[in-house]
């Protein structure tokens, strides 16, 4: 059977739920991954935007829905809206609708706004992880692509496809951020697993080149010591070093303790309040200096 997730939904496509009869108008594709395609949609006749995920595997979608529903119970602003089957001109696919998270991927945010934002972003992300852990879940596939940051620095996790119940095997992981890859522990989902990924993610954001070099070690000798060597070597990482080493060694009792340690030891530094001057403004400034110089030269020469 051909599903609409295989063929893709063009902007303007109306997706109608078979059971609840809600209608969603596709604005654009937000992204596609292993588990399906995510579209930015509006409910027909309304302004409110949502993210609609159309999946290849109903069981996978269901486990993501379960996590979002659990999060709904903890927060006033809902994560999960509804789930249904789409029936579009003979094409059939399961979908669910969730909160649309406006923002850019974490790596892009840090690249544009500067590394000094990691203190604040890290704290908000640890809060998110801690909420998930309190519900008995482990995120599993924590990586910069799964963290969206709004222009004001609010942080949301996306892609709950890797989430597993605490104590169960991690369902999805990405090599660099995986504790098993660094021979640093099992792939059993526990709070320390997410904190380990969080620590490697910070190293990645602060010194990607050194992390890449460290990961080039032979698999059987690769270890936490390689990550700690990067942490010691890189000057940008210094303010985070103590926290990162502890997370890499599984030294926090839980994510709440890790969050409090981050708040005291990392975030306690002054906040970045001044926006970096946009590049176009810097360029215009340099250009005007050059023009002034040229005008002065012509003036003196005549
Ligand atoms: N709630 C959301 N709000 C905004 N954008 C989203 C949302 N959920 C997903 N996206 C976008 O859609 C893309 C694909 O979504 P998602 O990662 O959930 O799919 P996936 O099939 O599980 O992917 P992967 O193969 O990475 O596991 C994301 O990279 C992100 O850009």
From TrEMBL:
<feature type="domain" description="Protein kinase">
    <location>
        <begin position="24"/>
        <end position="302"/>
    </location>
</feature>
<dbReference type="GO" id="GO:0005524">
    <property type="term" value="F:ATP binding"/>
</dbReference>
<keyword id="KW-0067">ATP-binding</keyword>
<dbReference type="InterPro" id="IPR011009">
    <property type="entry name" value="Kinase-like_dom_sf"/>
</dbReference>
<feature type="binding site">
    <location>
        <position position="53"/>
    </location>
    <ligand>
        <name>ATP</name>
    </ligand>
</feature>
<dbReference type="InterPro" id="IPR000719">
    <property type="entry name" value="Prot_kinase_dom"/>
</dbReference>
<keyword id="KW-0723">Serine/threonine-protein kinase</keyword>
<dbReference type="Pfam" id="PF00069">
    <property type="entry name" value="Pkinase"/>
</dbReference>
<dbReference type="InterPro" id="IPR017441">
    <property type="entry name" value="Protein_kinase_ATP_BS"/>
</dbReference>
<keyword id="KW-0418">Kinase</keyword>
<keyword id="KW-0472">Membrane</keyword>
<keyword id="KW-0812">Transmembrane</keyword>
<keyword id="KW-0547">Nucleotide-binding</keyword>
<keyword id="KW-1133">Transmembrane helix</keyword>
<feature type="transmembrane region" description="Helical">
    <location>
        <begin position="280"/>
        <end position="300"/>
    </location>
</feature>
<keyword id="KW-0808">Transferase</keyword>
<dbReference type="GO" id="GO:0004674">
    <property type="term" value="F:protein serine/threonine kinase activity"/>
</dbReference>
<protein>
    <submittedName>
        <fullName>Serine/threonine protein kinase</fullName>
    </submittedName>
</protein>
């Amino acid at each position: 059977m051909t599903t609409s997730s295989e063929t893709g939904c063009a902007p303007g496509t109306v997706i109608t739920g078979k059971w609840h009869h809600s209608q969603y108008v596709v604005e654009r594709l937000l992204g596609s991954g292993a588990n399906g395609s995510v579209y930015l949609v509006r409910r027909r006749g309304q302004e409110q935007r949502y993210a609609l995920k159309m999946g290849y595997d109903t069981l996978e979608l269901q486990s993501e829905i379960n996590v979002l529903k659990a999060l709904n119970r903890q927060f006033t602003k809902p994560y999960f809206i509804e789930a249904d089957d789409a029936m579009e001109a003979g094409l059939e696919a399961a979908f669910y609708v969730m909160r649309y998270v406006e923002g850019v991927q974490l790596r892009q945010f840090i690249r544009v706004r500067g590394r000094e934002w990691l203190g604040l972003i890290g704290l908000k992300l640890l809060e998110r992880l801690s909420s998930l852990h309190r519900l008995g879940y482990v995120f599993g596939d924590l990586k910069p692509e799964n963290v969206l940051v709004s222009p004001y620095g609010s942080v949301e996790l996306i892609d709950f496809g890797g989430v597993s119940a605490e104590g169960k095997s991690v369902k999805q992981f990405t090599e660099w951020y995986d504790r098993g890859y660094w021979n640093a522990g099992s792939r059993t989902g526990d709070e320390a697993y997410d904190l380990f990924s969080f620590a490697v993610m910070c190293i990645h954001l602060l010194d990607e080149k050194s992390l890449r070099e460290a990961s080039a070690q032979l698999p059987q000798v690769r270890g936490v010591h390689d990550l700690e060597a990067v942490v010691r070597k890189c000057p940008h990482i210094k303010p985070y070093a103590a926290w990162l080493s502890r997370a890499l060694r599984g030294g926090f009792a839980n994510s709440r303790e890790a969050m409090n340690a981050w708040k005291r030891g990392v975030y306690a530094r002054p906040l970045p309040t001044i926006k970096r001057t946009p590049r176009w403004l810097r360029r215009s400034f340099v250009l005007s200096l050059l023009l002034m110089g040229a005008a002065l030269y012509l003036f003196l020469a005549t």
